Amino acid sequence: MEFWKEHAKLRVAVIAILFAAGLAATIYGWRLTGKMAGLGIMIAGVGLLVAALWVYNIPFGRTPKKKP
């Protein structure tokens, strides 16, 4: 996972895009109250927000322990 540590600007751009798309999808789906499509769009938006969190947390992942 060294790629994401070395390319911080790319990581920030990906997080910003995922966050904006997730927030927009969630709000748009919320406006479709009473329709099944609105629920699906909101779930997809929450999935994009979780993906943004996942990209944020990649560089802080666990490192394998070295045996003595």
Give a verbal description of the structure.
- The chain has 3 helices and no strands.
- It is an all-alpha fold and 68 residues long.
- The protein is elongated.
- The model has no long low-confidence stretch (mean pLDDT 88).
Q: Would you summarize the structure shown here?
A:
By secondary structure, the protein is mainly α.
Shape: elongated
N-to-C CA distance = 24 Å
Uncertain stretches of 5 or more adjacent residues = none
Provide the gyration radius in Å: 16 Å
Strand content: under 5%
Please give a handful of descriptors for the protein shown.
75% helix, single chain, elongated
What's the layout of helices and strands?
Blueprint: H1 2-6, H2 8-31, H3 36-57
